[in-house]
Write a structure and sequence with these properties.
There is one protein chain. The protein has 85 residues and is mainly β. The protein is built from 1 helix and 6 strands. A hairpin with a 4-residue loop joins strand 4 and strand 5.
Length: 85
């Protein structure tokens, strides 16, 4: 996932497959459906196709290419099943 500024310049790149897959945060489908960034540029809310919402936070002044995020916080988990054909 890329975080862009108002001029569409890349501010940060976040590898959700790495962030949302792990023993503490097993996402069923980490594909992004929606993204919101707080006005102070310290928090990102991510909605996934698996009906999950995660919050990424930083203690940096604002999100940049070198930003390190804290462990993702699971805000909500929904119901999800992959389509089987």
């Amino acid at each position: 996932m890329l975080v862009l500024d108002k001029s569409y310049n890349v501010v940060a790149k976040i590898l959700l497959e790495e962030v949302l897959r792990g023993p503490n945060m097993p996402s069923q489908c980490p594909e992004v459906r929606a993204v919101g960034v707080s006005s102070d540029m310290k928090n990102i809310i991510i909605g996934t196709y698996a009906s999950e919402i995660y919050e990424l936070s930083t203690k940096d002044a604002k999100i940049s290419a070198t930003t390190k995020f804290t462990a993702p916080k699971s805000v909500i988990k929904g119901h999800y099943t992959p389509n089987k054909k």
